[in-house]
Amino acid sequence: MVRFRKGDWYRVTFLDHCLGTDRPMECTVYGYITKLERKYIVLSWWEVHDDEYRDSNQELVVIIRSTIVSAEKVEKK
Fold this sequence. Notes:
- The chain is mainly β.
- The protein has one domain: Roll (SH3 type barrels).
- The protein contains no helices and 5 strands.
- It has strands at residues 9-16, 25-36, 40-44, 60-64, 68-73.
- Strands 4-3-2-1-5 form a 5-stranded antiparallel beta sheet, with no helix packed on it.
- It starts with 8 loop residues before the first strand and ends with a strand.
């Protein structure tokens, strides 16, 4: 499994629930890590480039670590 680092960008595929089905579905999100906890990670897929407003303008995704199928660090261009 990937060792996550706060502030780095990742592509994370994880299992989640979806409307219309009774089974977990694979979902993928791209974003930077804003918080790391033992049982979950938090990514923000919306990056604001102005430091003054960055922390108050985030679209957060909380992912339970046990649901992660794969993760890959993505290098910014």
